[in-house]
Structures
1.
Amino acid sequence: MKKIAIVGSNSFVAKNLIRKVSKDNYIYLYGKNLVETKDESLSFVSYFNFDYPNWPLDLTSLLNYDVIVYTAAVGVQSNNRPANLLLYQVNLFLPIEIVTFLNDNNYKGKFITFGSYFEIGTNDKEKLYNEIEVIQSVGAISDSYCDSKRLLSNFYLNKQFNILWYHLILPSIYGPNENDNRLIPYVINTIKEDLDPKLSSGDQVRQYLYISDLVELIDKIINTDIPADVYNVASCTDSIKIKDLVSLIYEIMGKQQKKYDQIVTRDQGMAFLGLNTDKISYAIPEWKPKVFLKDGIKKYL
């Protein structure tokens, strides 16, 4: 059994990962109010309060683990952005501090972090970007969250470390129990409540990856000796225009689609975002997304 630390264990990705890896490993969770809300059904789990900057991270404790998964992030939701300094501290400075500390102390385990295809920025080319193209993109970005992710990915690319660091660049991750303000649950809830949704023109193309497929990949990285590198992780068959995704949700729910008031969103200049996944497919050929968009949406209902 491995000792696995999950830093930022209140996140959507972390909660799903915990269910996957807690059966066969010792799990150490760092997150908000965990001691008060711990799940007694999970065996071999230890809890540590972490809420930067009020409850800082004990870096020394990280040296005890075989794997560290950094899922902490702030500013993920565009309607809930904190002060810029806190955003950069959690999304950029703290992971760099962790990497530097682990490297200085000859850490031999695995460290896993996450980037975003929103790092591509403003783009209208209909192409799937490889890892280097994502990181070196000079497209204008819409906010500090995207900037913090782009800066962390660039730090990775400079390779000023010798630890086993895996940096996964993600598309739009979805699944039941994600934040209600995200697109799919938002549209589902407006349909259920017979409300008029407020959406953009919907001409943007996005990739979607179901949460269990991402968790399955992380589990394979934990348990497989693959080269430590930056990897795009996506389902190349689940690229879709936002307006077509909205229509699909109405169709699945058996409802007539309503006209809606169009609003301007920050990401409309990012007309096409897509990831080339050749590298991860070569590194872990047995991993392939299993849940595709139509079936994934049905799991919310």
2.
Amino acid sequence: MPNKESIEIEIAKLIVETLSLEDINPSDIDFDNHYSMTVLG
């Protein structure tokens, strides 16, 4: 079972890829990253 850090890194990669595809403002990256880490606890 992957450790917590590996999961967070993978999610961060997915977020960055998604933002790149959708051309969302860079300011949204921090919000999404913070949200994901909050959800993971």
3.
Amino acid sequence: MTSHDVINIVIVGDGAVGKTCLLHRYSNETFLDSYVPTVYDKEDFELMLNGTSYNVRLIDTAGQEDYERVRRLFYKEAKAFILCYSIENRASFENIALKWIPELKNIENWPIPLVLVATKTDLRDENLRGRPLITTEEGEAMADKIFANRFIECSAKKNVRIKAVVHEALRAACNGPIERNEKKSSGSLCSIFSCCQS
């Protein structure tokens, strides 16, 4: 992979977990208040990483079962995946391992680098009713389980760590997938700090 190649990063996860809000916040620096189901959307960017410019295409996909065939069209060219779940939606979290990883494992060029992303973390500050939310520790354990290159918690509403999600996905695309026998600690990996190779 060279810096001139278009690096496709595909965003997947259940419907209504905040995938489109993440893309919209990163590309337009605004927050979408209303939920509109997405079939497909994309944005192209030029990103700098370790002194090298990369052409990055972020692809937002539909999480509903009806659009599985559409999603798979974008999987073939993916260099990395951003797997999203909402901290307020236990089913979306469990579906990372039950639905999304099995679906991605059917890709011809699997394994592909993964960044696991917990969305809507602003709800922790607004959780006045004490609703059960997915904890950071649960997210880190899931990242270990699926061999994610990185685990990041973010909030599109508060614009917290949105850029980090995209930049770490690019870094993962450059570094390649995690070796399945590689030891991990505290939800992160030494390999994510190595430089991208052009």
